[in-house]
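dude i think i finally got it to work??
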Amino acid sequence: MEISKQSSNDENLHEKRIAMVSTHGYVAAEPPLGAPDTGGQVVYVLELSKTLARHGYKVDIFTRCFEDQPGEESVDDQVRILRFPCGGGDFIPKEYLCGHIDEWAENALSCIEANNLSYELINSHYWDAGLAGTILSERLSTFHVFTPHSLGSWKKRQMMEDYPDDDTSFEEKYNFTERIASERELFHTVDRVIATTPIQRDILLEDYDPDPDKVIVLPPGYDDTVFFPIGQATKDYIRNEFGFQEPTVCALSRLAENKGLDLLVDAFALMNQRHIKAYLNLAIGHDDRNEQEERIYGQLKEKIKHYGIQDRVRFSGYIPPEKLADYYRAGDLFVLSSRYEPFGMTAVEAMACGTPAVVTRHGGLCRFLQDGVEALVADPFDADELAMDMAAILRHDGLYEVLSSQGSSMVRQYFAWTEIARQLLEVINEIREDKGAHGTPA
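look at this
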């Protein structure tokens, strides 16, 4: 594949370049968030790439080409997306893209070699891309850092606890056996593994037994130039734009079982019955729903009808990136109700905007938080607990102000992308020191 010349071939040899590998989903400069396999990971890769570019690197994001997407797309002057085909032209779910990774890697390597590109680091994301990054790393003699984003063992265990009668369907749907075996091999062979939370690191070490010195914690980040608090007058204007006239609980996610939207509806119905009247705004999914998403959407509608709260629940659909910060600001409360959540970036973004949050106990973000100071932590399987936490924030101005102020300050200190990029660059230097400036990858 011929790609645009950011510089001459000779200059390419002297540029500082990083390759981000994220093979599944709709990776794009303006991704259709909420589309299948297209959510927080895509945002993570894009934002980290743009921040690394501000540190003097050129970044190429390697992904899959399908559905007549262009082979190359510019994100900005220093970041571009390079797409390579494999497995035909249709969308392939991330659980089964692994069967086509060898083809994808050969196409990517042909482009790299034809354009005389070299990279200081390959950072792969999720296990399908980890397999691809391993091939590129070995052929290019480049260091490989793997960010799994979630763990097959953790997800399987959580799903089995929640739905013990669906073991066979889970294996068929999520390809757990192949995924967990591939993750185990990756964790033992790459140069570094980036866990996004302390709890993920703990589970990774316990379930996969890698070298603990190779596993570091580097949380996702957010863009602090976009997500920040505003004054009350501006907030009132934005609330009016979104049609939020009364206390409003907000949620935002893909239509997926693990997001716990049904659990949120259970708790919200209970809150309205016992504690305080409010509205629930669900910014979920997109209009072009697949069969599974349509099933989940239908179940939510039936549950809402069962509780008789149709007039209290609104579906706003996909929120475009330019409206996302204002969506968070318009709400009185944001809830992350996931059954299983490796991190919880939507809650971080909401907190950055000064909106109090209730986050799931079954996820990684809660380990960073002081419960009752920066956010409230609840078990979404306990409808009473989740309902009481939501009601407490909406009822008590003092609690609202503490969570709004302290939550915003905490995420700004720890999760801004500038800090995350700085830490990743430190990882590159550590790998160099471990192996020598001219050493070879593990």
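The longest strand covers residues 58-65.
im so relieved honestly
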